[in-house]
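Before the break, one more example. Copy the sequence into your notebook; we will annotate it together after we see the structure.
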Amino acid sequence: MTAYVPLDDLTDTERAVRAAFGGGARLDLAGKSVRGAVLAGLLTGAYPLGVGAMPALRLDNARVTGRLDLEGRAVDSVITLQRCEFEHAPVLRMARLVALSLRGCRVPALYARNLRVGSDLLLEAGFTCDGVLDLTDATVEGTLRLAGAVLRNPGAAALLGARLRISGSIQAISLRVFGELRLRGAGVGGSVHLTGAQLAHPSGVALEATGLVVAGNLLCDSAGGRFDVAGTAVLSGARIGGDAVFSGARLHDARDGDGQVLVLPRGTAADHYVLDAERLRVDGDLKLDSGFTAHGSVGLRGAHIGGHLLLSGAEMGHRAMLADQVKAFAEGRTTTRVPVALVADGVEVRGDVEARGTRFGETDSDGDARTAFRAYGQVRLVDAHVHGSASLSRAWLRGPGIDVLFADRLRVGGTLFLRKVRASGSIRLQNAHIGSSLDCSGARLIKPRLRPDGSVKPSLDARVATIGKDLLCSYGFRAIGGVRVRLVEVGKMATFAGARLGGRTGPGHPVTDKALSAYGLTAQELVLVFPERRPPLGLVILTRASAVSVTDGAGLWAARGGVDVEDFTFTALAAVPEVSVRTRLAWLRKVQPDFAPGPYDRLAAVYSDGGEEELAQRVHLERQRRRYAELHVAGRLWGRLQDVTVGYGYRPWLAMVWLGLFWLLGTLWFGDHPMVKLDNDMDPVWNPPLLATDLLLPIIDLGQDNKWRMVGASQWISGVLIAVGWILATTAATGATRVLKRG
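Here is what the structure looks like once it is written out:
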């Protein structure tokens, strides 16, 4: 504590200040000097005042020399200093003040650790601090006003407010800070207003608000001026009772590095963030929208948002940092480092995630592409939980050769909208759970992730996902790397109507090997109608897929890599446009060079269940023809014989036709060539029709066979009729057995 100045040593100016202080009058010193020790003496009762005095220190335009030191002192008078300039930093440590206003004042620093102010603390309207403003552990039983203030301490802390307690709000609109603004563990009973503030600590942390507790709203928006942070903003573990608003804010820094991270095993990543809000809790909405720009990564790991997460019109990541990715992809090689735009692993959003473009005028429900969410680098939503719906419609996601949307085990209570998304990179939704629909209508997914060997991974990978209602990949949906929906459960419809799947990712790049991998997919309705002129450019796998109703077309069966339909089950089948059974059998022959019975059995069952038994028989006939065609020579001959004679049992009337034909031939022959009886003791009647019948029917004896001596050509004719009878009987029996087994 600086010693007070004796009363007799006061200057004329200081005597005038003493007189004004006693009556609480405002005094404009017009740049005249007053010693800090004199002011401290006045405030602590060192100078006697007259009877009835109502002291208050109200000075304008004073120049305070020496040091104003009130450390540990209790001051009952109001202190209001405007546009004053201090030669030395005031010392207010552990002081107890009724009120303090330093509007427009300029101080080299301000040491106020453990200060307690009984009302508002006013450091606004041009208040300038050229060193540290230390409010560590201070208590303000009103509002802290920093609107328009300028705090300068480049390369160090400009405001130390750790564990600062404010009963009211922080009003810091248009605040300018050069250095670190530290509010670690601070508690604010009202709201924090940083609208239009500019914080600059480019090589370090510009806003350190770890553990900040705000009962009201955190407003870091651009209403009346853009909130701008040059450096890192840290809100880890902060608690916001209302909304956290960063609409239109701009965050950037000048740290070394390219904004890329090494993606570690098990889906983890380490990174430097321009906004680090790990474990942030916001009871209302978190708004990173309407022009919000983060030239770097935004971290929301483990954050809890009680309302909505708004990302419409936001831009995250560095465009420049994608240069290596673009070059590597063009060369067909992978990289070990991945740029990251948003890390929201484990985030919980009680409302919706809204990232589609703002709707203006006549734009459709997907919003305006000009104001949609844009990400330059990977967007991570691993283990995220959105209780409502999530819309990234029309979003621009840039990450060539990587998983640009990495959302394994994502849970969405409503619909996940990816309508008209423009993604340079792959979308990964493995083990995701979507309560309603996954809508990718009109999405355009190019430049998918590459494997280390240069081969192409799926553009959309949703294997083992669960979708409560519909999977929509239609209306112009395009996936250069194909789609993987292996073991996906779809509650209602999975449609790929009009989709374009597969292709070459770039000149000299390999073509996608699997255009659609739907192994084990289950759905009530499955639509596989592809443009006939643009069929899937790769293999379509429908192995063990299951659907109640399937709609297909020629485009599916023209897939460049073929169609695998082994164990593909369905109960109803339609085509657009409708096709004949002959066409369907041709499709099966085309995609199955090696015979497999399952697809034929399933197709026949569908026709049979629909009451079209004739069509079912045609399918069964084709099945048997293909089966015997792959046997050895004897098997092929036997199959051909069954086909011609009884149609493998599915055309038993053919046997009657052949029997009738040979019976007629036999009757005509024996009608012109009567035979001599074998036994003169017997007198059989020559009956050519009955003889031909007896020869053709094995086992049955009509009394004509073995009664006549067959000589010459008749002997051969009778042998042929007997052989034909046995062959027809055997094939008919084989066919009958097959029919009985089918029944």
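Residues 256-270 have pLDDT under 50 and may be disordered. Residues 581-630 form one domain. Try to locate both features in your own notes.
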